[in-house]
Amino acid sequence: ETEADFGTLIQSASIHAELAASIPADSPKPKGRELRNKLIQDAYGWLERADRVLPNSPEGCQVRAFLAMTEGRPLDAAMLYRKCRGLADCANGQYGPLAMHEARALSNAGHFEDALKVLADSATDVAVEQRSERDLLTARILWRGGRVDQAVAAVESVIETGVEGSSACREGAALLEAMGAYEPSESAWRKSETVDELERYHVARLKARAGKVEEARENLERAVGSGNPEVLRRMAQDNELWAAAIGTQRLQELSGAVS
Questions:
Q1: What does the CA dihedral 60, 66, 67, 72 come to, rounded to 10 degrees?
Q2: I need a labelling partner for 73 at 20 to 30 A (CA). Which of 17, 100, 171, 253 fits?
Q3: pLDDT tier at 257, thresholds 50, 70, 90
Q4: Which whole-number Å values give the CA distances from 95 to 106, 116, 125, 127, 130, in the listed order?
């Protein structure tokens, strides 16, 4: 029987790996965990077939690294991502993204300084359009490693050079908020959101997190008053925060005002 071509085999491996990753490892449903394990094993099966057609391919190496992350083996994943960069057929344009994958894996393993070194050493491999992603990843790793002030400064640099309304600015604003850097986060959200009521919503949320309940309520009510349904969607995502800040009854009243 003739074997399928490499592209078909590696795509099948990748699809099975991604489906497995979409199921939580700690799924409360036994059938979910069983399906996850089966998808992982099937992915390896497709990979073995792909390797027989084209051994030591960068594509196969990347899928193995992804599977290692899915299985909770970040150090193995980091080594595989590094191996990918050293393969003869690895395209130059992949060096930067693979270095970022390696850094994420090392960070997940708690090897923060090693992760930062990978990013620093691969700086010239990162394309211009990927630099904000690299810099935000650096900030996240600094934060996880306990270097909060440096992390905040790194994000602020991304915001400063970012385009108004860009995804990089939004991700940076959210990261600053997660780090508890509320003042710089407010400035970042104002640059990130080009729709006034959405900007106001995020300012309201920051005020609530900072314990400034009256300012939070005022900004939230003005955002809701715009009638923009996106405000309701975001408010629903932050339901617990708002219930604690303004009370369940008022939250329900505001939800009804939008709907």
A1: 150
A2: 171
A3: low
A4: 16, 16, 6, 10, 12
